[in-house]
From TrEMBL:
It comes from Streptomyces chromofuscus. This is Glycine betaine/L-proline ABC transporter ATP-binding protein. Gene3D superfamilies: P-loop containing nucleotide triphosphate hydrolases. InterPro entries: AAA+_ATPase, ABC_osmolyte_uptake_ATP-bind, ABC_transporter-like_ATP-bd, ABC_transporter-like_CS, Gly-betaine_transp_ATP-bd, P-loop_NTPase. GO terms for molecular function: ATP binding; ATP hydrolysis activity.
Length: 359
C-alpha cells in the first residue's frame, strides 16, 4: 500500500535570500547562524510519509515549526525547497487555481480557533465548504446535516454559533471538514483552546469518528499526552527539524536523543504501553505457567497489571491464533514504570508483597 501523503526534504525559510539560506543549511549551518543574518529557518529538511487511514501527529514546542510544516502540506505556504505529494500528485508544482481546487475538494483543514461565521447558522457553517464547491443547496444541507450528526450536533443545525459552547463550536468546525468528504484532514492545534474536560471529549470524538471513517489525518499539537493518545505515529520537532518519528511506544521506549527523553519523562506510561511492548519474547511454551488468564499483544498496560495481580505466574501473551508470543513477569511490569514518580502501581499485589523497580 503506497503512502497517501509524502513530504520530501521540505524547507521553509523567511527573510532575505532564502535559496542561499537553504544551501547553507544543507552545508551544516544552524538556525542561530541564519538568524544573525536576518533570516529565519522555520522548517529544515523535513521528510515523512502518511499512510491511508492513519492519524499522523506532529508535535513540538512553540516555535518548533510544526504549524509552518502543516501549511506547506496544502499549499497555504510555498516550500522554499522540497516537495509534497498527495496521492502521487506533486502539490508544489500546481498553479494557484489548481491548489485552490485541491483544497476545496481533497484536503480540509480544522483550525485551532473555530473560524465560524457568526452570521451563518450552524448548518450553513458546516455546509460552507460545499458551497465553495458549488454543490446545490439541498445536497449540501443534507451532507452538512449528516456531518453534524456524526459530530454529535444533531438538533443544533438552526442554532447560531454564539449559542454553542466552545467544544460544540469546534465540533462544527470538524463537521465542516467532514462534510466535504475530503481525503485528507489537517488539524492545527484544533483542541488546544478548549478546557481540559472538553478537550478530552473532542479527542474521544475524533477517535470514534476515525474508527468509522478511516480518514487520513495530520494532527498538530504541543501536548505530548494528546499526541500519544491520538497518533498512530508521531513526529517530534525541535528547532525546525524532525528529530524522531515512530509510534507512541517507539518514542516512549526508544527516545532518539536526550531532548526526546526529557520531553517524555512525565508521560504516564500506563496509558500508552501495551503487552506487546513490554513482553519477554525469549520464552518456550512451558514457561508461560497456567494460561487461565492471558493477554494479547494489544492488551493495554493497566489491564495487563490487573491480570498480573490476579495470577501467581507471568502473564502469557497469545496472538490471534492462540499461539504463545511472549510472557510478562510482574517485575518487568514494575520496571517499565520505575522511572515514574509515585507510590504503588496497579501492579502491586498484597499476595506477593511490594515489588520495587530494583527487583
Amino acid at each position: 500500500m503506497s503512502a497517501r501523503l509524502e513530504a520530501q526534504h521540505l524547507y521553509k525559510v523567511f527573510g532575505r535570500r532564502p535559496d542561499e539560506a537553504v544551501d547553507r543549511l544543507r552545508e551544516g549551518a544552524d538556525r542561530q547562524e541564519l538568524r544573525a543574518d536576518g533570516t529565519t529557518a522555520a522548517v529544515i529538511d523535513a521528510s515523512f510519509t502518511v499512510e491511508p487511514g492513519e492519524i499522523f501527529v506532529v508535535m513540538g514546542l512553540s516555535g518548533s515549526g510544526k504549524s509552518t510544516l502543516l501549511r506547506m502540506l496544502n499549499g497555504l505556504l510555498e516550500p522554499t525547497a522540497g516537495t509534497v505529494r498527495f496521492d502521487g500528485q506533486d502539490l508544489t508544482a500546481l498553479s494557484g487555481r489548481e491548489l485552490r481546487e485541491v483544497r476545496a475538494r481533497k484536503i480540509s483543514m480544522v483550525f485551532q480557533h473555530f473560524a465560524l461565521f457568526p452570521h451563518r447558522s450552524v448548518l450553513e457553517n458546516a455546509a460552507y465548504g460545499l458551497a465553495v464547491q458549488g454543490v446545490p443547496r439541498a445536497e449540501r444541507e443534507r451532507r452538512a446535516g449528516e456531518a453534524l450528526a456524526l459530530c454529535g450536533l444533531d438538533g443544533w443545525a438552526r442554532s447560531w454559533p454564539d449559542e454553542l459552547s466552545g467544544g460544540m463550536q469546534q465540533r462544527v468546525g470538524l463537521a465542516r471538514a467532514l462534510a466535504t468528504d475530503a481525503d485528507l484532514l489537517l488539524m492545527d492545534e484544533s483542541f488546544s483552546a478548549l478546557d481540559p474536560l472538553i478537550r478530552r471529549d473532542m479527542q474521544d470524538q475524533l477517535l470514534e469518528l476515525q474508527r468509522t471513517l478511516r480518514k487520513t489525518i495530520v494532527f498538530i499539537t504541543h501536548d505530548l499526552n494528546e499526541a500519544m493518545r491520538l497518533g498512530d505515529r508521531i513526529a517530534v520537532m525541535r528547532d525546525g527539524r524532525i528529530v524522531q518519528t515512530g509510534s507512541a511506544e517507539d518514542i516512549l521506549l526508544r527516545p532518539a536523543n536526550d531532548y526526546v527523553a526529557s520531553f517524555i519523562q512525565d508521560v504516564d506510561r500506563s496509558r500508552v504501553l501495551t503487552a506487546g511492548a513490554v513482553m519477554d519474547t525469549g520464552v518456550r511454551g512451558d514457561e508461560a505457567g497456567c494460561a487461565c488468564e492471558t493477554a494479547t499483544p494489544d492488551t493495554p498496560f493497566t489491564e495487563l497489571c490487573a491480570i498480573s495481580a490476579r495470577v501467581p505466574h507471568p502473564v502469557a501473551v497469545l496472538d490471534g491464533g492462540h499461539k504463545l508470543v511472549g510472557v510478562v513477569p510482574r517485575q518487568r511490569l514494575v520496571g517499565f514504570l520505575g522511572d515514574q514518580e509515585g507510590g504503588a502501581t496497579p501492579c502491586d499485589s498484597p499476595r506477593e508483597g511490594t515489588v520495587t523497580a530494583d527487583a
